[in-house]
Amino acid sequence: MNLRKQIESFGKKFLIAIIRLFIRSKPKTLNSERINKILVVRQDERIGNMLLTTPALKVLRSEFKHARIDGLISKKFSRLWENLGFLDNIISFDKRSFLKNPLKLLQYIKKIRKIEYDLAIDLSSKDVVSLNGIMFTYLSGASIRLGYKRKNSLAFLNYEVDIDPNIQYEAGILAHILSPIVRLNKLPNLMFNPTMDELNWAENQLEEYSFINNKKPIVGVNLGARGEKQWGISKLIKVAERISTKSNILIFYGPEEMDDFERITIKSKNIRPVKLSSIGNVGSLISKCRLFVSNDTGLLHLASAVNVPTVAIFMVDNVGRFNPSGQKAFYPPPTVDELTEYILGII
Q: Which of 177, 165, 147 is nearest to 52 (CA)?
């Protein structure tokens, strides 16, 4: 963890501890039959973390078919909860605009409280307390405020869920928060539903790439990953060039990979670069792939959410927690030859 992250983490913990001196929630009993309005809160600006909440949303909707269920989510990736059919309303939160105008934040909270939710759920994971998430859960004014039992969480929540050490996969960890109010049998897959406009955009892109009516399978290769999660851009491109003899390749990259990517000369005519644009367009293009190869990053989970088989490269041992369920993962990381051989054997 870099110094900025350490300072930020310490600051949040300190602020939560100070707030706890002034507020404390009394534990409450929970009666599911009296729940008609639900607010689900998740404040996160990472694609993978948001997609890992979608099985919990599906389980919640299946249990509360006739309830009003709203989602409070960061504006940056609110698209990830749209078009799923699980939420009645999405209340997006733009942290930057509220920092500029604190009065606007008070009006925002007042609008949420006016709905009079019966239940607010802090859908944050087991190891960290999201200050924004737990604060909005508390400030929603909901009768029951549900979330994981963590240090200082009782200041904000009045119904805490114990962590189950036997659950490893992150999507299951998040769904377990709902265990007091839903039946958790089989965990659903991650979900992302492209719109028709987004799917049409993807079709047009493939036509532009001359991949339409081409019998070769399309393989997506994602160059993105930060810090210790990065296997190596040059190695990923080497793999892409070697497997391009049997497939068409879409190389996905963002601003952080642009300089390194553009310095590399790509020899194969079957490789097309895809600069990241809107999350909906990217998801729709990934959905056209036969296979998606990626470091442990957000697009790995996006591929899983559109039902594309994945091959993941993990640089740290988080496979059990973050690799898409039932999909291939390499840890320790493979050599270029090993990864190439594996992909050629399955496409």
A: 177
What 3-state DSSP class applies to 293?
A: strand
For 9, other C-beta atoms within 10 Å of its C-beta total: 12
Q: What is the pLDDT of residue 21?
A: 44
- Cβ atoms of 171 and 190 within 8 Å: the answer is yes
Instruction: Express each pLDDT in 79-112 by its tens digit.
Output: 999 999 999 999 998 877 777 788 888 899 999 9
What are the structure tokens assigned to 237, written together? 């491109």
Distance between CA atoms of 148 and 325, rounded to whole angstroms? 23
Q: Please state whether the peptide bond connecting residue 255 to the residue before it is cis, i.e. omega within 30 degrees of 0.
A: no
Confidence of residue 22 (pLDDT cuts 50, 70, 90): very low
Of the CA atoms within 13 Å of residue 76, those in its CB half-sphere come to 11
Provide the H-helix boundaries in the chain: 3-20, 47-51, 54-63, 95-100, 102-114, 131-139, 170-175, 196-208, 233-243, 255-262, 279-286, 298-305, 319-322, 336-346
Question: How many other C-beta atoms lie within 10 A of the C-beta of residue 112?
Answer: 21
Q: Domain 19-178: give its CATH code.
A: 3.40.50.2000
The pTM assigned to this predicted structure is: 0.90
What one-character DSSP code corresponds to residue 165? T
Contact 299, 322 (CB under 8 A): no
CA distance 325 to 90: 27
The domain 196-346 is classified under which CATH number: 3.30.1840.10, 3.30.390.30, 3.40.50.720, 3.40.50.2000? 3.40.50.2000
DSSP per position, 192-250: ----HHHHHHHHHHHHHTT-TT--SPEEEEE----GGG---HHHHHHHHHHHTTTSEEE
* Centroid of chain to Cα 217: 27
Answer yes or no: are the C-beta atoms of 41 and 140 closer than 8 Å: yes
Q: Counting Cβ atoms within 10 Å, is residue 121 exposed (0-12), middle (13-18) or buried (19+)?
A: buried
Alpha-carbon distance 270 to 131, whole Å?
A: 46
